[in-house]
Amino acid sequence: MQRKVNDVGGLAGLTINREEHDQTFFEKRVDAMLMLLTSPKVKAFSVDSLRRTIEESTLDDYSKRGYYDKWLYAIRQLLVEKAILSDEEIEQRISLIKHSKR
Amino acid sequence: MTDFQANTRHPIFNVGDLIVVKSGPPEVHCRTPTYLRGVSGSIVQIMGEYHNPSLLAFHKTSVSKIWLYRVNFEQADIWRKYSGPNCDTVAADLYEHWLIPA
Amino acid sequence: MSHPDHHDHNHDHDHDHDHVDNTQEPAEELRHLEQALRELLDEKGIVTSAQISQQIDVQDSRTPSLGAKVVVKAWVDPEFKRALLSNPLETINKFFGMSISTPLELVVLENTPDVHNIVVCTLCSCYPRMLLGIPPAWYRSTDYRSRVVIEPRIVLAEFGTQVSDKTEVRVSDSTADIRYIVLPMRPVGTEGLTEQQLEVLVTRDTMIGTSVPNFIEQ
After folding, report:
1. Taking 70 as the threshold, does the pLDDT of residue A58 lie above it?
2. Where are the domains of chain A?
């Protein structure tokens, strides 16, 4: 039975990189967004569904994407899955942001 | 930690019971790591009744709960060639439907 | 199951490694996506900008010093320690006037001369954030998650931690949203230290289990 990308216990690994950095402002915003979306008051989706979404990414995406990048893509997918936002309006907004001076 | 209500199904396993972790079937958003599948262990604590994460992962909120157990495994039973001493162990929290009596 | 090669590893960071976190500003695509989602959620009143700011402040306030205070209290107060081990969350909230919660439960793993505990989440990165703040990148890395369950003593050695062969190394894998924190042993010779001085010894890594409190008597 094939392992999911996140199911890594016991696989070969390298020396652990123990470099640390303060959380960037981007990371803090993504973290906060997720905490709020999964909070009992908002309940946009569950943390379990976030994990499920990330587990279904390709090995390439899983190993190359940053931790918070994975979260952000998953948040987008789930907001659309739950019909809270649409792909169309997200794309429209991204386009607006890209072409404006913000 | 656990309140046994009159209409709650009781846990199948007790502390001290010997179990084997099932090898399958595949489950989307599975919280039973591959490295423990098929391994023998013993129940050390009954953690409580919780919603099945595999169902929560698909936004299903009104689901019945399942029992969660803290299970102890000897490292020598998990890995073919564990490099540490025989006393070393791994403990994991596993849901009832992934365990069978040894 | 293949075992990793353990020759000395040059400190130069190998970029074929699995990812590390963003150390600088993310790619434009991600910045735009984050901004777009944030704006849309705010406009629809689902998650407002004010709430995001407030949540950031709350998370910033959670640092390992919270966990350290709990550990030191357990070291100096046997009554608290007893209550902590049997009912961690309720005890912490009551004694420290807090209202922290966890997805399921919090469990405190006591280190003893017979057992050294170390915590991991092999499947994702579950971590007692409410007591330790944000987990370090290494805790979330696939290298830590894959190796600590199969070769914990080698991982411990990488962190400069030696555990006697007569002491059981017990790896707790947080597979189900139970949050684990290690209660390290109080170092010998610290009887004369104040609680504040003791807190300095209780680093984040001692509560994950990759380190033990270090005290050298003067």
Report:
1. yes
2. 25-99
Would you call C124 a catalytic residue per the annotation? yes
Strand intervals (E) in chain C: 106-110, 115-120, 168-173, 179-183
Mean pLDDT value across residues B56-68: 84
Poorest-pLDDT segment among A26-30, A63-67, B33-37, B57-61 = B57-61
**Which chains form contacts with chain B, at 3 or more CB pairs under 8 Å?**
A, C
Q: Is residue B4 part of a domain?
A: no
CATH number of the A25-99 domain: 1.10.472.20
Residue B47 lies in a domain: yes
What is the token pair recorded at C36?
């777009």
pLDDT at C34 over 50: yes
Instruction: Please indicate, yes or no, if residue B3 is contained in any of the structural domains.
Output: no
Instruction: Tell me the pTM.
Output: 0.91
Cα(C199)–Cα(C179) distance, integer angstroms: 21
Q: Tens of pLDDT along A15-33? A: 999 999 999 999 999 999 9
Of C53, C101, C124, C164, which is the active-site residue? C124
Asked about C121 being catalytic, the answer comes back as yes
Assign B91 a pLDDT band (cuts: 50, 70, 90).
very high
Angle at C152 between CA A61 and CA C104, to 5 degrees: 65
Whole-angstrom CA distances from A27 to A72, B30, C6, C36, C47 are 10, 27, 33, 15, 17
Residue B7 has pLDDT above 50, yes or no: no
Contact criterion met (CB < 8 Å) for A1 and B24? yes
Please tell me the distance from the alpha carbon of residue C186 to that of residue B29, in angstroms, as a whole number: 39
- Write down the domain spans for chain C: 29-61, 62-208
Is it true that the peptide bond before C4 is cis, omega within 30 degrees of 0?
A: no
User: Which of A7, A27, A29 to probe the C interface (max C CBs under 10 A)?
Assistant: A29
Q: Which CATH superfamily is domain C62-208 in?
A: Nitrile hydratase alpha /Thiocyanate hydrolase gamma (3.90.330.10)
C2 and B CB contact within 8 Å: no
Q: Which structural domain range is residue B97 located in?
A: 18-101
- How many structural domains does chain B have? 1
Q: What is the CATH number of the domain that holds B54?
A: 2.30.30.50
Q: Give the closest-approach CA distance of B88 to chain C in angstroms.
A: 5
Q: Is B7 among the domain residues? A: no
The answer to whether B38 faces chain A, any CB pair under 8 Å, is: no
Pairs of CB atoms within 8 A across A/B = 40
